[in-house]
Amino acid sequence: MVLAAPSTQQKHIIKRIIALPGERIVIENGAVRIKESRDQNGEVLQEEYLALPNTPAIGITYINLDPQEYFVLGDNRQISIDSRVLGPINKWEIKGKVFLAFQLSGFKLKKF
Fold first, then answer.
1. Can you tell me the distance from the alpha carbon of 73 to that of 90, in angstroms, rounded to the nearest whole number?
2. CB neighbour class for 37 (10 Å; exposed up to 12, middle 13-18, buried from 19)
3. Alpha-carbon distance 69 to 112, whole Å?
4. What is the pTM of this model?
5. pLDDT band, residue 26 (cuts 50/70/90)
6. CB half-sphere exposure, 23, CA atoms < 13 A
7. Domains assigned to the chain
8. How far is CA 58 from CA 3, 26, 36, 94, 112, in A?
9. Could you give the angle at the alpha carbon of 9 between the alpha carbons of 7 and 14, nearest 5°?
10. Residue 32 pLDDT more than 80?
């Protein structure tokens, strides 16, 4: 997970990097597929950590990332403002890596 400050947002956001520079992303039928080339069938992401594994196809559902771009998604995909809405995140917009997060209800600690 990374902390980013997209140029289209006033605030920092914390999101999970789903695809790296040069990859292709396809979101269809609730699944996220990552392709490394046009001819490749790609690999569907296995995201067991999601409470609701269905990724809605809102905003961007197919994109080819440029050499300095990352595709990020939030874990609460039903309402997340992420790369489907904001577009890809540029390398220089990434401010840091999240390695610990506290969940106040129940005081659970998550490691990333």
1. 14
2. exposed
3. 22
4. 0.79
5. very high
6. 18
7. 2-111 (2.10.109.10)
8. 22, 12, 22, 23, 27
9. 100
10. yes
Q: Which amino acid is at 92?
A: W
Q: Render pLDDT for 58-94 as a digit per residue (tens, 0 to 9).
A: 888 999 999 999 999 998 888 888 999 999 999 998 8
| Cα-Cα-Cα-Cα dihedral sign, residues 44, 49, 52, 57 | negative
Of 66 and 96, more confident: 66
The answer for residues whose C-beta is within 8 angstroms of residue 79's C-beta and 6 or more apart is none
In whole angstroms, what is the distance from residue 106 CA to residue 40 CA? 44
How confident is the model over 26-53, as a mean pLDDT?
85
Longest distance between any two alpha carbons in the chain, whole Å = 47
Q: Can you tell me the distance from the alpha carbon of 39 to that of 107, in angstroms, rounded to the nearest whole number?
A: 46
| 15, two tokens | 């999101």
Residue 5 has pLDDT above 80, yes or no: no
